[in-house]
Amino acid sequence: MINTLRGKVLSIGEESITLEVAGFGLEVFATRSLMSQAELSEELFCYAYMQISLFGFSDERERLLFFELLQVKTVGGKLAVTLLRHLDTDQILKAIASGSSAMLTVPGLGAKRAERICFELKNRIAKKFSEIAGVGEQGSKDRASDSFVLEALTGLGFTQGEAVRAISRARAEAGPDASWTEEDLLKTSLSLLRRN
Fold first, then answer.
1. Strand (E) or helix (H) holding 47
2. Beta strands of the chain (E only): which ranges?
């Protein structure tokens, strides 16, 4: 199995990077954070997993989450890396831990499959990613308001990723003990989006 790659970036596409490694041009389907590190003609190091295609990750944590997503029967490598391209690792982990399947909406992933990911991985995620312990308890309280705010923000024309990041940032800045109404969370998230 190929665990890591190091090579010169030959090209950068919408979903993948082509790396020249030992004379081979390897197409690597990459996460958002790895794509942001890639510069044409520069050397790039990444962690990797090879299925039928080669997938690249900016760190081992992303790769571990990718492996967990593959445990869900209907999730393949391309869909798993699509999730990691549109949402960052923490956003996916928090969505799964809290059962907020609406926060996992990305191109190619429908509501039923998102619910299945949350259902099948909730306990596995809690054990393997101990730093998110406690998110599940908070999540049951926050689930309805997150879904409502997410729907409201996307209805206003913001992308799913922008909306999820704004909600997560609003909660992070307020701290874990903050109490939110749906209206307060919507106003704060909208303010963060307008500021950006």
1. strand 43-50
2. 4-12, 16-21, 24-30, 43-50, 54-57
Q: What is the residue range of 72's domain?
A: 61-195
Structural domain count, the chain: 2
Q: What residue has token string 């869909």?
A: 79
Helix/strand/coil for 29 = strand
Mention every residue, 6+ apart, whose C-beta is less than 8 A from residue 37: 44, 58
Residue 117's DSSP bridge partners are none
Same domain, yes or no: 83 and 25 = no
* Cα angle for residues 90, 15, 32 (degrees, 5° grid): 25
> pLDDT by residue (tens digit) across 62-99?
999 999 999 998 899 999 999 999 998 988 998 898 88
- Give the type of residue at 65: L
